[in-house]
Amino acid sequence: MTQHTKLPILGEKSFRLKGETHQLVTFLNKTLKDRDLIFGLTLDGTNYRIIIYDSSNNDHPEGDSRE
Predict the structure, then answer these.
(1) Structural domain contains residue 35
(2) Structure pTM?
(3) What's the domain range around 32?
(4) φ and ψ at 37, to 5 degrees?
(5) 45-57: per-residue pLDDT in tens?
């Protein structure tokens, strides 16, 4: 089993969003990857939760600090 380093969470906020929500997160990840930011999106009931991770000191950005 591979161990992943947990990424620090910089911010987290829930929103009621409609439309092309996942495309927004893809855009943010592509645009800001050179600044070591990773954006995650989860559906929490009827709200979306966006999480901003700092990957600046991480060799494996696949981790999740909430594990």
Answers:
(1) yes
(2) 0.71
(3) 9-54
(4) -110, 140
(5) 899 999 999 999 8
